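RECORD TYPE: inverse folding
INPUT: structure tokens
STRUCTURE:
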């Protein structure tokens, strides 16, 4: 395997048609804004391409780079991977192994900056009025969400939840947003 850093014209880079990741319009717009607001990050967070300039890591970023009008970009070019290794990289590059420490974020980070950077979990007004929560003496420690469905719908619901990306909280909040819009 050979790995090298190089610069390519955006027009030379091809999206990976087999990438199983998707992005909502709202998150895509935030990604484009992020690229425009912090172009200094582009060389630090390179796209990963194979010897044919097909994206192995950064498919959504490539789309956002085009939308942002970027003409060329730093890439990490990897040569000599088997097709199986390429597919493995595409999946493993996108796995959310880590989880957010919500207490640290709430106490040590500026919530407006986090929201501006695309982390909008606790400032989400699109869920206002969706829940009726009564005040109690004890603060709520956790919520339990129960899905009510019949056996025929189980496969569809399971596939939908598995197709989502992000933390459990992000998946549930995205599902609730979509339910509210419907």
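DESIGNED SEQUENCE:
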């Amino acid at each position: 395997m050979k790995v090298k850093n190089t610069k390519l014209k955006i027009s030379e880079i091809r999206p990976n048609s087999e990438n199983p990741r998707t992005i909502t319009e709202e998150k895509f717009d935030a990604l484009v804004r992020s690229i425009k607001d912090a172009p200094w990050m582009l060389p630090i967070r390179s796209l990963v391409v194979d010897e044919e300039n097909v994206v192995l890591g950064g498919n959504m970023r490539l789309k956002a780079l085009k939308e942002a009008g970027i003409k060329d970009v730093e890439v990490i070019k990897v040569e000599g991977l088997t097709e199986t290794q390429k597919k493995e990289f595409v999946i493993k590059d996108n796995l959310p192994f880590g989880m957010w420490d919500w207490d640290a974020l709430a106490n040590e980070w500026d919530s407006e900056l986090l929201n501006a950077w695309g982390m909008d979990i606790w400032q989400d007004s699109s869920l206002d009025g969706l829940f009726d929560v009564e005040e109690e003496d004890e603060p709520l420690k956790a919520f339990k969400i129960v899905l009510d469905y019949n056996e025929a719908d189980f496969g569809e619901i399971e596939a939908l939840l598995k197709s989502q990306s992000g933390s459990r909280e992000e998946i549930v909040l995205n599902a609730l947003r979509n339910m509210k819009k419907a």
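NOTES: The CA atoms of residues 14 and 54 lie 5 Å apart.
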